[in-house]
Structure formats: structure tokens, C-alpha cells
Amino acid sequence: MCGIVAYIGRRPATPILLEGLKRLEYRGYDSAGVAVLEGGKLKMARAVGRVRNLEELIEKQGKFEGSLGIAHTRWATHGGVTDKNAHPHCDDSKLGHGIAIIHNGIIENYASLKTYLTEKGHTFVSDTDTEVLAHLIGEVYKGDLEKAVQAALREVTGAYAIAVVCQKEPDVLVVARKGSPLMVGVGKDEYVVASDSSAIVAHTTQAFTLADYTVAKLTRDSFRTSTVDDVPVNAQVKELEFDLAEIELGNFEHYMLKEIYEQPRALRMTLQGRVDMRGGQIVLGGISQLARQLATSRRIVFVGQGTALHACMIGTYLMEELGKIPSDWSYASEFRYRNPIVEEGTVVVAVSQSGETADTLAALQEAKSRGAMALGIVNVVGSSISRETDAGVYLRVGPEIGVASTKAFVGQVMVASMLSLFVGRRRYLSADHVTKFLQALDRIPAAIERALLLSDHIKKATEKYIERENWLFLGRGLNWPVALEGALKLKEISYIHAEGMPAAEMKHGPIALIDKGMPVVFVATRNSQYEKVLSNIQEVRSRGGHVIAVATEGDEDIKSMAEDVFYVPDVPELLQPLVTVVPLQLMAYHAAVMRGKDVDKPRNLAKSVTVE
Ligand code: M6R
């Protein structure tokens, strides 16, 4: 969602801000803007569309010099996608303070604040909640920006990460957060603030994350952190573990493709140091202290959204099969509002790549407030969800830039299987059983490498169906969430309408959709439900549908039933999603490229969805 970059130091701010915005482009946005304090005056530019539009505008407007500035990519929530709604927003010009603000999040009580300010004579020029906050800061400003920000935030409910500058204080940058991510990079005589580390690491690897309700006042050579009530708090500056090459495209045309190909290496990282083959153990340092509590828990609920939700579904199967604990999954957004029953011994596992998804974070908080143990399966270290949990396991798959989640999905499934083994070993599973399973897990990266060799074949097959606007994805058991994931991948980046469902469900209505030539993708690997899936394939064929199958290497029978078959290596049933998803990711990728879509930045989508 919205991306924030701010700079205070001794170098020209504009190039740093623009470069930072480009690093954050992957988060998804619809407009961008920048404000720089130049010779004690605010210079601002805002433009709908890509950051390059903003760059062109800045070039047209002349120099944007100055070593203090703020910049933003906006993903519209309040108000349409227009220049005037793009950030930065200013306080009321009548007051003459010259305050400018950028904001990620939602000010929930903005309507009542707006009424209050309007009655005080403020006039607003945009439709945004952010402008209301800018005016509120201006209203309470009495010559000290830090104090004004604190005072304004005490009146605000909702979520925010903000950066604020004021013409009257050319040596001060004030930033604050609650609920939305914000990080402060600490350089020599300079600070680079951003929504995530990708916009910081080119400048410094020292950084601190702001805790909720914390305000930081940054000057060129010092900083002070406090609560919104002005109680000083300590900020721990830490080394960022980040390799710049991980966020470069390298020889790939798109981040999504790069990340699909990174999956074997990523999973080797997920496994590294966590597998004790000899002892038949899985070593998960992050949750070891809660091992007993976890193994004796009564119920486990996985919550997430989108791709992470599909990993949750798979996690449920794995936990029941390996951990033998009653398990369930739920959309985080539904869980939190349905008055969930959290009995003693309930564990809620939040699954999230970004660790910032608002619905997942809120579900976790709800579960905790009802007494559940809160675990996280998260990729981004130090993210809001990872900090909210009692314990957790990181994915370690490296930064995921493409909006379509790929390597995070396999990481989530891999960690869910490790978590299930961890629990199972403490309950019923013998060391031998676990060792066998671990050996199979260890072979997964190589199996994915083989599946990746299918790319050209998949591209050719996809070409045949590229004009079709409606696709079905079907599977049974663990192949059902994979079918859902295949449909989600296709629709989100190629804008083709795709539905995923359990293969058996087709007969209960969706079969009416099947007409001559409709592509129907079956995840039809050899497993306990294979024969049943073959029957479903026949039902589609007899209605003229085109069957595309993901099948197990060596399965000759399926050849006569499907127009196209993508063979993946044979792996144990419980681990099949880790390989069967790969052809579907490649298929979605090739379809989007063939249709000329912006693969890494699909329309209307954001990488991390930080609003409900
Ligand atoms: O960061 P998270 O894993 O919590 O994100 C959850 C979903 O927003 C995300 O998986 C989304 O569905 C992706 N666009 C799917 O490719």
C-alpha cells in the first residue's frame, strides 16, 4: 500500500526521495508526490500514475533543491485518484505555518475532526483523511513541530505512519507510527525514513523501527523518540540484514519470474539449520519456549488473507495429519468479526508474507484478547504481526517484491509442515517417521527445480487458451487450495476471470459454466483422491471443456484425458502443494506477459494491504 520516504541530512534530498519511491513501487500505488524544503520554502509536486510522471513534473517545475524532504506513493482509500488527493498534504495556508505531511493508514475519526476544524474556519482542498490530520497539526502548532504532532495524534483514532515537515523549522523532520509500518535508517549526519528497508539499505544498514504510538524527532545529527504523551522511549538501532542484490531484478524481466525461480534457494534457506535428520527432530528456535504449551493445545486456527490464506488451508491439513490436533482455517477478516470462540488451549497462527496485513493483524489481536496463544508464520522480520505474536517462525525466503506472492507461498507451506512436525514429534510421531518426512522435505527444492524446467512447455500451452476469458481450477484435498492459488494468480496479474474450487463442488452448480473450449485446470497428482479426480475430468471433457492437468511424472493414463499435461516430480502427498503450485505460477506469469499486463504491479493491487 502507500509508500513513505523521508530524508534529512546534508545531501540533496530529491534524488534520494525519488529513488526511494521507486524501491517502494512494488507495494502498489496510483499516484505519487514529493515536498522539499528549499531555502525555507516548501516546494511540492504531485502526479497521478507512475513515479516517472512525478519526475517529469519536477523537471518541468525547475530545481527541487534542499536536504530535507518527504515523498509518498498513494494507494487511494479516501477520495479518488487525482493530483489533489495525492500526498503530501498541507495544513491550512491561512495559518502560514507551511506544514506538509505524508501518511500511510486511515484516520478513522477524520469526519468528526473535519467538522471540528471546519467550524474553526479551515478550508480543505482534497477529499482525504490525511489533509484533515495536516490541518489538525497546523491548528495545534505553537512553534514546536514535535509537540504539535504529538498533540494532534492524541486526538486521532485509526492507523498511521507519517512524516511531517514545517517551513518554520527547516532542520526538523518529525515521524510517527501506529499500526502502519515505518523504519528509520540512521546514517552519518542523515536519516532516511521509509515504509520498509528496501528504500533504506542503499544508504545505511543501521536502522530502528518505531513502535506504535511513538514519535521521532530527527535533526541532521540527532534524534529523540517519545510517546505521543511525550514520555521518552528508547529506540534500538540494529543492523539490517538485507542484501541489495535481493531486491535487484538481475537478468529477469520481472520480479515475479525472478521470485518463482528463487523458490528452490529460498526453501533451502527456510530449512537451513532447522532440520535434525539424525535425531528425527525439527528445530524451531522461535517457538521452542512454547513447545509444551503448543503440543498440548486443543485447537489450532490458521488465519490469513489471499495467498497466505491458501497456505493456511494447507497448514490445517498438515497439522491434523502430522500434529493430530483439531485444526481449522479462517479468513482473518472474517475471524475477527464473527465473535470467535477461543477456549483454553486455542492457538491462533497468523500467516503473512508482509506481516503488515491489517486484517490478519487485527484477527491476531482479537484472538489474543480472548486468551489465545498467538503464533506467526511471517516473512518480514520485525513486522507488526511478528511483533504482536507470542512466538513464531520466519520464512527466510528473502524480500518478495512482485505483488503476486510466489516464493512466500511455498515458504509458508514449508514452515506449516515444519510446525506440524514439531508438534507431531512431541505427541505421536516417532523419530523414524519424522526423519523420513524430513528427507522428503529436503528433496523439495530439487523437485521444484525440475518443475521449473516446464516453463517453455507451459508458455506454449498457455498461448492456446490466451483468448479465453473464463477459466476453472479444480483439485481435491490438498490440491484444492493449490487450485485456488492457481486461480488467484491468474486473475490478479492477467485479469482473466478464474475460479478455483474443490473438484467435487463443480457438479453442484459451476458445471453449468463449462462450454466448448473452456480451459479447466485440474491439479491431478497421484494421491489418495486421484481416481475421483479422473471422474471429474471426464465430466468436464464430456461437456467440451479443455482439460489442462498438473500430474505426477510417469502418469501415462492422464495423457489421454487432458489436452495439456504438466508433469511434476512425485513427492509425498502432504508435500505435493509445494511442487504442484509451480506450473500454475508459471502459467499465470506467461498469460499476463502475453496479454501485455504489468506483471509486478497489477492494477488496483497493493503488495501489503494495510487497510481493512
Ligand atoms: O502479506 P500477506 O501475506 O499477509 O498478504 C496477504 C495477501 O494480501 C496476499 O497474499 C495477496 O493475496 C497477494 N496479492 C497474492 O498474490
Please explain how this structure is put together.
- By secondary structure, this protein is α/β, with parallel strands linked by helices.
- The chain has three domains: 245 residues, Glutamine Phosphoribosylpyrophosphate, subunit 1, domain 1 (4-Layer Sandwich), CATH 3.60.20; 195 residues, Rossmann fold (3-Layer(aba) Sandwich); 140 residues, Rossmann fold (3-Layer(aba) Sandwich).
- The chain has 18 helices and 26 strands.
- The strands form five sheets. An eight-stranded antiparallel β-sheet has the order 3-2-4-1-10-9-11-14, covered by helices on one side. Strands 5-6-7-8-12-13 form a six-stranded antiparallel β-sheet.
- Strand 20, helix 12 and strand 21 form a beta-alpha-beta unit.
- Helix 4 packs across helix 5.
- The longest helix is centred in the C-terminal third of the chain and has 22 residues.
- The protein is globular and about 75 Å long.
- 5-amino-5-deoxy-1-O-phosphono-D-mannitol binds next to helix 9 and helix 16.
Bound molecules: 5-amino-5-deoxy-1-O-phosphono-D-mannitol
The N- and C-terminal alpha carbons lie at a distance of 12 Å
**Class by SSE composition:** alpha/beta
Q: How many domains make up the coordinates?
A: 3
What percent of residues are in strands? 15-25%
The CATH architecture of the largest domain is 4-Layer Sandwich
Tally of helical segments: 18
- The CATH first-level class of the largest domain comes to Alpha Beta
| Molecular shape | globular
CATH level-4 homologous superfamily of the largest domain: Aminohydrolase, N-terminal nucleophile (Ntn) domain
Helix proportion range: 25-40%
- What is the CATH topology assignment of the largest domain? Glutamine Phosphoribosylpyrophosphate, subunit 1, domain 1
E-strand count: 26
- Describe the strand arrangement of the main beta sheet, using strand numbers: 3-2-4-1-10-9-11-14
Q: Please state the average pLDDT score.
A: 94
- Low-pLDDT residue intervals, each spanning 5 or more residues: none
The biggest beta sheet reads: 8 strands, antiparallel
Radius of gyration: 25 Å
